[in-house]
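ok trying again, last paste got cut off:
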Amino acid sequence: QVQLVESGGGSVQAGGSLRLSCVASGYTYGTACFAWFRQAPGKEREGVAAISPSGRNTYYADSVKGRFTISQDKYKNTRYLQMNSLKPEDTAVYYCAAETACRLYNDYVRYWGQGTQVNVSS
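nice, full thing came through this time. structure:
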């Protein structure tokens, strides 16, 4: 089983930046993409960004394109989400995930991290 542990959440003002980290352990064979999802209170969990294990393919939700960047240190089994120009609507719990397909859809997630809170104030 794969364990995913996120860190790096916190509170920032609008326009600020945060960098989230996700460390994976366990057997990750079969993972098509490592991804970041987020969920705000009262809203559905949505895909934010994903990266293939090779790092050659990345995917972003339209709402974060140009502001967020997903990257990885493959040998450390760590993925990152650099979040710049943060907006209040980015406030959510952010989850690391391992997907069976690079869809940024909940139904393709095999493993979830515990989540880390990101608060962006206006």
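cool. The mean pLDDT is 95. DSSP finds no helices and eleven strands in the chain.
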